[in-house]
Write a structure and sequence with these properties.
Blueprint (H helix, E strand, L loop, with lengths): L9 H13 L4 E4 L6 H8 L6 E10 L2 E8 L2 E3 L1 H8 L9 H8 L17 E4 L6 E5 L5 E6 H7 L3 E3 L2 E3 L6
Parallel strand pairs: 2-6, 3-5, 5-8
Antiparallel strand pairs: 1-7, 2-3, 4-9, 6-7
Length: 168
């Protein structure tokens, strides 16, 4: 059996159930594992900026949030700290991220997460169709960006910078 025909994982079932419950229209793409952003974009039929990375960020003990980042960008930590009114943020290790979301790195999505953590979406996401992770490697859902941020009740702000730009 190939990766694309494999039975849905528990994570995929939770993510797709969460998407269905949200009421937004979505199209599922199953393409198996990919090795790069460019490969994922090609497999999903969308440009790299349309891939949404869901990043788990820690504000404090047992206090996390999701940050939705366009594929060709990275979190601007000063912008995110200013938006949240905090002086310190960090990214949990892979095991902690899985514990607090139920998803492995590379499969994380707010839909079907074990806890409905708050969501911050970069402002570029709501202006276009986007592809967000579907709870398993090689599974994604293409949705309207504006519907995505509305369904997640996301705080929308410019919280990213071009990939390769470094800010502390």
């Amino acid at each position: 059996m190939s990766d694309t025909a494999a039975a849905p994982t528990e994570g995929e079932r939770r993510a797709l159930s969460g998407l269905e419950t949200s009421g937004i229209a979505f199209q599922v793409t199953r393409h198996g594992r990919v090795g790069s952003l460019a490969e994922a974009a090609e497999a999903r039929g969308i440009d790299p900026a349309g891939i949404v990375k869901t990043i788990v960020v820690r504000r404090g003990d047992d206090d996390f949030l999701f940050v939705l980042v366009p594929g060709d960008r990275t979190i601007s930590w000063p912008k995110l700290r200013a938006l949240l009114g905090v002086s310190r943020l960090s990214m949990p290790d892979a095991a902690t991220a899985k514990d607090v979301t139920g998803y492995e790195r590379g499969t994380i999505t707010p839909f079907g997460s074990l806890v409905a953590w708050p969501v911050v979406a970069d402002s570029r996401i709501r202006t276009r169709p986007v592809s967000i992770g579907g709870g398993a490697h090689g599974v994604a859902a293409t949705v309207d960006g504006a519907e995505l941020v509305k369904a997640l009740d996301a705080t929308v702000s410019d919280v990213t910078e071009p990939e390769g730009t470094s800010s502390g």
